[in-house]
Amino acid sequence: MSFVEYSELIQEGDVVIIFMGHDSMMPIKVQSGAQTQTRYGVIRHSSDLIGQRFGSKVTCSKGGWVYVLHPTPELWTINLPHRTQILYTTDIANITLMLELKPGSVVCESGTGSGSLSHSILRTIAPTGHLHTVEFHSQRAEKAMQEFKEHKVSHLVTVRNQDVCKDGFGITGVADAVFLDIPSPWEAISHAKKALKYKGGRLCSFSPCIEQVQRTCEALLDHGFEEICTLEVLLRVHDVRTVTLPLPDFGPEEYYADSTQTTSDISQEDVNTSVICRTATPPREMAGHTGYLTFSSKPRDQRCE
Ligand SMILES: C[S@@+](CC[C@H](N)C(=O)[O-])C[C@H]1O[C@@H](n2cnc3c(N)ncnc32)[C@H](O)[C@@H]1O
């Protein structure tokens, strides 16, 4: 199992997502001889998991069943152990699109945090790209390295335990894109510029407060970045329900005289009845603020042509 390649069968050491419902999942590491307790009973790793197909239905000791899913970055984001605030898939999808990430991209990221975004970046840039991720909290950097190894993506990522605002990303002129999720991104813009390719590249900074956005935009302008644009991505979940609606009033009966349908074709019952239909309504209020995403482009460095 790897986060960047699909495997058919579950093996010792794999991470498996135990799916008990859309809002009830947990990640487990498969170890022969180990057991995992669920509300449906025990799952025995040796007999119930190892050698089974990813996606199978597994019956637990109390007779209930769960699905055993192959991990994906999306499933990891909603199941990972939180060491920090994390980015969720709605923002991650836009970051991936707007940074123009693709297989082979070289990307810089800081801070690594809990590695939620890192896993999505890695899946997108595999098999030939590379992620340089910088985290100044030593235990978080250590834990991220360990997870990348367990998830078989460590060949695609370099974790540096340093302050990105002081020491930068540790590379010069090779990145296609830079992503910042730190409290003072404006202090890292010069380092981002240095890390990006001489022919240019894309930058994104995530900040929850508009004052942080303002300072970052000023720093981006000072360093010659172009196409600066800030987005807030809101997930609008529509509520699907059944409603009863009165039939529309098409006016007095004589109006039917000109139509192909005559009044005798329409029964009084039809005219007076309501229709039952399925409808979807958006929420009246949106309490979904995560943060602002500020994107910009570094233009080609004229001096290096
Ligand atoms: C909100 S978390 C990042 C979460 C990450 N984007 C994710 O999706 O899991 C911010 C991280 O940045 C780190 N950090 C803050 N300032 C930093 C700096 N100057 N250099 C390196 N890391 C920094 C913090 O230690 C923290 O782990």
Automatic annotation (TrEMBL):
First-level EC class: transferase
Gene: trmt61a
Localization (cell): Nucleus
Family: Belongs to the class I-like SAM-binding methyltransferase superfamily. TRM61 family.
Its EC number(s): 2.1.1.220
Its biological purpose: Catalytic subunit of tRNA (adenine-N(1)-)-methyltransferase, which catalyzes the formation of N(1)-methyladenine at position 58 (m1A58) in initiator methionyl-tRNA. Catalytic subunit of mRNA N(1)-methyltransferase complex, which mediates methylation of adenosine residues at the N(1) position of a small subset of mRNAs: N(1) methylation takes place in tRNA T-loop-like structures of mRNAs and is only present at low stoichiometries.
InterPro entries in the cross-refs: SAM-dependent_MTases_sf, TRM61_C, tRNA_MeTrfase_Gcd14
Primary location: nucleus
Organism from which the protein derives: Danio rerio (Zebrafish)
Gene Ontology CC: nucleus; tRNA (m1A) methyltransferase complex
Gene3D superfamilies: 3.10.330.20, Vaccinia Virus protein VP39
Protein name (record): tRNA (adenine(58)-N(1))-methyltransferase catalytic subunit TRMT61A
Statement: the UniProt record of this protein carries the keyword tRNA processing: yes
Superkingdom of this protein's organism: Eukaryota
GO molecular function: tRNA (adenine(58)-N1)-methyltransferase activity
Residue ranges constituting the tRNA (adenine(58)-N(1))-methyltransferase catalytic subunit TRM61 C-terminal domain according to the UniProt record: 64-297
GO BP terms in the entry: axis elongation; gastrulation with mouth forming second; swimming; tRNA methylation
